[in-house]
Amino acid sequence: MNSVTKSILTNKEAITTDQDMLGRQGYKILDEEKFEIFMRPLADGDTVICLFTETTIKLM
């Protein structure tokens, strides 16, 4: 496992989001050619947004 993968898998915020008490699954809100955006509600009323990209180009 490389250092980038390890830093993602051991990220406390990512683990907390994964184990949120609400237990609602995230869902895709945008599907573009180069990226996808997912959204997930959390028990405290917050919302998590996740961007997946399969490219190395800078998106923002």
Q: What report would you give on this structure?
A:
- The chain has helices at 3-9, 12-18, and strands at residues 27-31, 35-41, 47-53.
- It has 60 residues and is α+β, with helices and mostly antiparallel strands.
- It has one domain (3-53).
- A 3-stranded antiparallel beta sheet has the order 1-2-3, with no helix packed on it.
- A hairpin with a 3-residue loop joins strand 1 (27-31) and strand 2 (35-41).
- The mean pLDDT is 91.
Topology:
Layout lengths: L2 H7 L2 H7 L8 E5 L3 E7 L5 E7 L7
Antiparallel strand pairs: 1-2, 2-3
What distinguishing features does this structure have?
alpha+beta; 3-stranded antiparallel beta sheet; 60 residues; 23% helix; flat; 32% strand
Order of adjacent strands in the largest pleated sheet: 1-2-3
* Number of extended strands: 3
Shape category: flat
Estimate the mean pLDDT confidence.
91
Distance separating the two termini: 27 Å
Q: Main sheet, how many strands, which sense, barrel?
A: 3 strands, antiparallel
**Count of distinct structural domains:** 1
What's the helix-strand series? Answer: HHEEE
Structure classification: alpha+beta
How much helix is in the residues?
10-25%
The fraction of residues in strands falls at 25-35%
Give the oligomer, counting copies of the same chain as homo and different chains as hetero. single chain
Our count of helices gives: 2
Radius of gyration: 13 Å
Ranges where pLDDT stays below 50 over 5 or more residues in a row are none
